[in-house]
Design a protein that fits this description.
By secondary structure, this protein is an alpha/beta fold. Helix content is 38%, strand content 19%. The protein contains twelve helices and 14 strands. A six-stranded parallel sheet has the order 2-1-3-4-5-6, with helices on both faces. A six-stranded parallel sheet has the order 11-10-7-12-13-14, sandwiched between helices. Strand 8 and strand 9 form a beta hairpin. Helix 6 packs across helix 10. About 3% of the residues have low confidence.
């Protein structure tokens, strides 16, 4: 099996593909490049070179938000100078494709994206791209509840504005579908004083599109605590980022299901493509439907728990990172 060097930019923000490779039988070395490396490219280059020389990987896989850390062209040039094959996981597709994914993709040997319609778009730039949907890390599994997280309804995620402008490139990223989903999933519950708690970034910031009442805000969570939040709730809510891709589903949806929690999320084409409504999870198309579904499932514990069990089985059988890693390895075998 392969020896793989996995380079992750801002590792706290991304799922752990390196663990998927390990579970698929590979020997993996991680190079985690976080805030401590901001604009310290010489230090990153030295760390990269020393890791390659010591570990001698068969290929390198990179992903994450590199823009605030390094020059991606120089970074991949170092990898190429050592004669190594480089793959890029476009985990920020599609909203950040132009800013983050495409510059890295153009320098890489292969690219994997969770968005079906971007595969032919990458081809226009001479990039060999393959589909790789999001998935669930093995850290997200069923655990015992904790009293401090006991709530009827929970949401773990960040509060985006309609438009984010990258200060360096001046490019803008539109989050309209996600913000619409925030209102669709949260506003009726806030208005009707449901037992709700929300964790993540920016929920009480006045410059955001949605302003959450302070008593409903739980703050930011460590990854290790997220499974306990889901285990301690009756309904784990979800917000989707992409409306039209049949293959894009929020990573948090897979994580909720992997933890064995009942999931109620905003409708998207991807949710409908991979899961069955009322079987693996449920979805809402409006504020009114959100409230109706919440009231129904809070009143029917047995139905809710049966669906949660089905959802976990579906993720365990098809949507863990080890499944995605095996798909990458099967593709890689054709090129190296």
């Amino acid at each position: 099996m392969y020896k793989i060097l996995v380079c992750v930019f801002f590792p706290d923000l991304y799922n752990e593909m390196q663990q998927g490779f390990r579970e698929a039988g590979c020997e993996v070395r991680e190079l985690l490049i976080g805030e401590e490396y901001i604009k310290k490219y010489d230090l990153v280059k030295l760390k990269l070179l020393s890791t390659i020389d010591e570990f001698r990987p068969d290929f390198v896989c990179s992903f994450g938000w590199w823009k605030d850390l390094i020059d991606i062209n120089d970074f991949i040039d170092v990898i190429k100078s050592k004669g190594l094959f480089h793959i890029w996981w476009s985990s920020d597709d599609p909203v950040c494709c132009g800013q983050v994914s495409l510059p890295a993709a153009k320098k890489s040997d292969l690219v994997f994206t969770p968005v079906d319609y971007l595969v032919p778009e990458y081809a226009k730039f001479g990039v060999k791209a393959f589909l790789l949907p999001n998935a669930c890390s093995s850290r997200y599994t069923k655990v015992s509840p904790k009293a401090e997280y006991k709530n009827d309804l929970v949401l773990v995620g960040n509060n985006y504005s309609f438009r984010h402008v990258d200060e360096e490139s001046k490019n803008s990223i539109l989050y309209k579908f996600r913000v619409d989903g925030t209102y669709q999933m949260l506003q009726p519950l806030v208005d009707n004083q449901k037992n709700l708690k929300v964790w993540g970034k920016w929920w009480t910031d006045f410059d955001r599109a949605f302003l959450l009442p302070v008593p409903l805000y739980g703050g930011e969570l460590k990854k290790e605590e997220i499974p306990y939040v889901y285990a301690s709730s009756k309904i784990a809510l979800g917000i989707q980022q992409v409306a039209t891709s049949k293959t894009y589903v929020s990573t948090r949806t897979y994580e909720v299901l992997g933890c064995g929690a009942f999931h109620l999320t905003q409708f998207s084409c991807g949710i409908d493509y991979y899961f069955k409504k009322g079987v693996h999870l449920d979805w809402s198309n409006s504020k009114e439907e959100t409230l109706e579904l919440v009231d129904y499932y809070l009143a029917h514990d047995d139905i809710r728990e049966k669906i949660a069990l089905n959802g976990k089985r579906e993720v365990d059988e098809k949507h863990r990172l080890v499944h995605r890693a095996k798909s990458v390895l099967d593709t890689i075998a054709q090129y190296i």
